[in-house]
Amino acid sequence: MSLAIILFSGGIDSTTTAAIAQEKGFSLMLLSFDYGQRHRIELERAARVAEQFSNASHVTFPLDFSGIGGSALTSSIDVPKNRSDYREIPVTYVPGRNLIFLSIAAAFGEVHHAYDLFYGANVLDYSGYPDCRPEFIAALETTLRFGTKAGAEGEEFRIHAPLLQFTKAEIIRTGLRLGIDYRHTHSCYDPGPNGSPCGECDSCLIRRKGFEAAGIQDPANVK
Amino acid sequence: MSLAIILFSGGIDSTTTAAIAQEKGFSLMLLSFDYGQRHRIELERAARVAEQFSNASHVTFPLDFSGIGGSALTSSIDVPKNRSDYREIPVTYVPGRNLIFLSIAAAFGEVHHAYDLFYGANVLDYSGYPDCRPEFIAALETTLRFGTKAGAEGEEFRIHAPLLQFTKAEIIRTGLRLGIDYRHTHSCYDPGPNGSPCGECDSCLIRRKGFEAAGIQDPANVK
Touching check for B95 and chain A: CB below 8 Å? Predict the structure, then answer.
């Protein structure tokens, strides 16, 4: 059984991505990042969500982005609420995040001889993040071919983004078909002190629209 | 004055690279990484070496590679001594290191509107590290064009590796011409408890040969 490394926040997208990798026959390294995100609850939830996968390990990598700044997710910039225009790149963009996360995933991959990296990038509901574009994925695969020992020795890193063209409703339906329980998945960028979602950030709005479009009640909201 | 970001270990190569960037008219952000390297003395030395640059800030970014493992520089694997064949990639290779470092440098660059990234890669004396190859640099520039907000907005990241084709002797002569004092630069992968170089690792051997070829006494050895 070949090992895949999954960028794993424990949200809907990365959880569904993990389920897809598992269906393809991979064992899983679920890689979460403690990057000083203001939505710290994400890390606790990721550990709970990870429990539903067999043949999986969950690793949390510490990465202190606070010194870089520039993002509403890691510094004191306010998280925008009730946005309606997703064409502009929002201040919740964390500079270089997916590139840095995938680079670290590739480093784990080199050590564990795991050359299949999965992440939940999505071009439709992606809030305009540039590091969710297919051109980025292709360029990074080339970079890994030339810039790693494994690549120099003939191994081929593959970056899988199986959700790239999915709507949020399709993502949710796919996950449910694969047996995913979304109850503990976390989406909100700006949760309350008890972890409750704000309901107004991009991530909350996209989640709500997704469950509505799928015609399914969000299990996280069932009391 | 435009800002450049320099991957800065405080060794001969990165110090010379910083001097070249300064000569080109850039102000400098000297970016060091506390990545759990066994040669911890490197970080203290980097701060001392950084003092000789004007219009420069020195930033140390914490990055815990110990969970990744797989390298003699960050885990309990022995540092090889007195190697003579540099064609093989050595165990001092840290998986993904330059890719991760440059990705983080690009994140700083996005926040500070600094799109010139410098690092001291070198193909001749590089001990076979794949992330010092020109193909890697070109691929990463493409990745940054597609994968960053700055790139999406039309900014062009440039990765400068001015030492790429230099011999160690040429690097040393260049630095001396630019007024660099190499006294506090650190090279050894496996220093003694007081920070003294082992004299036998790849990095010590390359340094010694470089000063010999340049016909100059290593100022670090002057008592």
Answer: yes
